[in-house]
Amino acid sequence: MTIELKEVEQLRKAIDAIASFISEGNFRFSDSGISFKAIDPSQIVLVIFGMDKKVFERYSIEPTFVGVDIVELSKILSRTLPNDRLVMDLTDSEMLVKLEGSISRSFSLPLIDVSDDDVNVPKTAADASIEINARIFKEALKDASLFGSSVVLRVKGNQLFIEARGSSGTLKSVARQTKQIIVESSSEVVSKYSLNFLQNIVREADPEKKIKLELKSDSPMKISYKIGVSPIEFHLAHMIL
User: Fold this and answer.
1) Could you tell me the pTM of the whole model?
2) Domain span including residue 75
């Protein structure tokens, strides 16, 4: 059972994004590709990731389900050099990772038992949808971090308001409809979220691509974008306003 990947950066960024919240979890290798779904220990953020087998140069693997230390896998993939190719094999007890380039390196990670409890994906229908350039959104969150540890997102008409408040001051940003920002809403929406969690969620988003936010007042928010061609989504619990 072997998979080979030339664009290792896609997988590295995805694993980094997951490792920000979840230290160990189960990866499902199916006939269609790799998938991952888990919620962090504090039950604040749910992560869903998928990588189609078409992304791989070689994908020859029996359908299986394996538990992995994601933080350790992230450390291994951080050692990838620019022209490296990744070769991954699975045994009954280990995940074998080879980085092959000017120098070939082999790593092995023991497989671990991780609870296979099914995670319920929130089914809340969103009242507002925002597609926003990742660079713009990341900068707005940096502005918010000057004053607060949480951020209030408010949607009214075709405008997104980003607000933060702390003992040292307040921030109020307005993002209006442009080519870089598309706002659709059926009603006014206001909700509050952890700023640290939100910044970690969008950290791996390509600055030149768009992030999609789907919101409902006082409800979890769905944040989705693509890493390369592979979709990743997060469901972030709201805070009490």
Assistant:
1) 0.94
2) 2-110
